[in-house]
């Protein structure tokens, strides 16, 4: 299923071009930005040099040092979107962005390697949490970003000690504000984090986790990951992905990447999201689970035990994310009708719109029955 493109925006400048396949390697989806902007503060940092090396190798010709990251002044909203989605900014993460936060139910703590994502999903989770044009900003002070891991190990709030996940130690989520694999081709941040944690640079007892809609995993597969990173693939029913994902790898390619990393010894996972109760949803999500089983069967048959988990996130939106998404994709067919939803208030007074109780109940009981039936031995960590 080819990913759809956004309804309103010509994504030509920003859509990842499928990489030229090397000898024997399958086609994978890689994002190559049109331009890389380096802030003055980031110039000369070791990870900046790595990003610039990767960008040069990827053929990026427009590289500029700037004081601040500002979109071109003449841009209208559509042009600003296209400019932002084809720009990689190399910036220094300020101390506020380096302070890990608890992030239930996914992980004990959140660590951000970057903020922003070049893909074009019409329900994008980032729409409500990041402000301004959707530029991807990668953090150049990677050592400082990863430094808190050692000190926080042992201070888990969410997953440490739970039956399904206690063996993972203290968990750190890398994909709250970006798709770390989607930008890896030109950043290298994920490989550095995985190898550092895998080889004990930050002590023992921590593990990383990330989720992605991309498939370029050859470099990760070869890393000394030490089994300390859970690679989850964000997948969906074929119809939902085909309608609403844009600029990502197609779901079958994500499943092949899942199998590749499972065979390389990574703990792996599925983030089934955003689940939508589309017509025939039981059949189409059932097919997805069956496809996962089929793609992992040869890995297990070859003698690699597969450590797979499942997380399920139903579609939701906030008033803020709805406004942003409607401005990016005004012709979207994505249902964001507050009257068809239940308003759920957070303890901080914010509101998010989730499916009505009956629908949630039906989804929950189906996934709770079908995940163990179709993927025996696989824990369903949560459904939210
Ligand atoms: Fe947003 Fe994830 Fe899609 Fe990127 S891949 S546009 S972060 S939903």
From TrEMBL:
Coiled coil: none annotated. GO terms for molecular function: 4 iron, 4 sulfur cluster binding; DNA photolyase activity; S-adenosyl-L-methionine binding. The lineage of its organism: Bacteria, Bacillati, Actinomycetota, Actinomycetes, Propionibacteriales. It comes from Microlunatus flavus. It comes from the Bacteria. InterPro entries: rSAM, SPL. The keyword Lyase applies. This is Spore photoproduct lyase. Keywords: Lyase.
């Amino acid at each position: 299923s080819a990913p759809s493109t956004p309804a309103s925006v010509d994504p030509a400048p920003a859509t990842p071009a499928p990489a030229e396949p090397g000898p024997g390697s399958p086609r994978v989806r890689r994002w190559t930005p049109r331009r890389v902007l380096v802030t003055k503060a980031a110039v000369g940092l070791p990870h900046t040099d790595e990003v610039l090396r990767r960008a040069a190798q990827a053929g990026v010709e427009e590289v500029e040092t700037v004081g601040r990251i500002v979109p071109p002044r003449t841009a209208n909203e559509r042009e600003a979107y296209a400019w932002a989605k084809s720009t990689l900014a190399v910036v220094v993460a300020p101390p506020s962005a380096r302070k890990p936060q608890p992030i239930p139910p996914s992980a004990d703590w959140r660590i951000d390697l970057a903020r922003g994502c070049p893909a074009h999903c019409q329900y994008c989770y980032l729409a409500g949490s990041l402000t301004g044009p959707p530029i991807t900003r990668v953090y150049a002070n990677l050592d400082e970003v990863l430094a808190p891991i050692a000190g926080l190990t042992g201070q888990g709030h969410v997953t440490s000690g739970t039956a399904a996940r206690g063996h993972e130690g203290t968990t750190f989520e890398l994909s709250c504000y970006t798709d770390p694999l989607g930008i890896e081709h030109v950043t290298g941040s994920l490989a550095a984090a995985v190898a550092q944690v895998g080889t004990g640079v930050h002590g023992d007892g921590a593990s990383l986790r990330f989720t992605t809609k991309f498939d370029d995993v050859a470099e990760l597969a070869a890393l000394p990951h030490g089994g300390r990173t859970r690679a989850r693939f964000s997948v969906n029913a074929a119809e939902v992905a085909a309608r609403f994902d844009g600029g990502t790898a197609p779901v079958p390619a994500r499943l092949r990447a899942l199998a590749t990393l499972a065979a390389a010894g990574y703990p792996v996972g599925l983030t089934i999201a955003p689940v939508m109760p589309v017509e025939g949803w039981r059949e189409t999500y059932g097919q997805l689970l069956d496809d996962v089983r089929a793609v992992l069967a040869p890995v297990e048959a070859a003698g690699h035990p597969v450590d797979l988990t499942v997380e399920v996130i139903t579609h939701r939106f906030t008033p803020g994310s709805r406004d942003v998404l409607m401005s990016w994709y005004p012709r979207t067919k994505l249902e964001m009708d507050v009257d068809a939803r239940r308003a759920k208030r957070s303890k901080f007074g914010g509101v998010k719109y989730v499916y009505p109780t009956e629908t949630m109940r039906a989804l929950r009981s189906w996934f709770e029955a079908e995940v163990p039936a179709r993927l025996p031995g696989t824990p369903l960590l949560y459904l939210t």
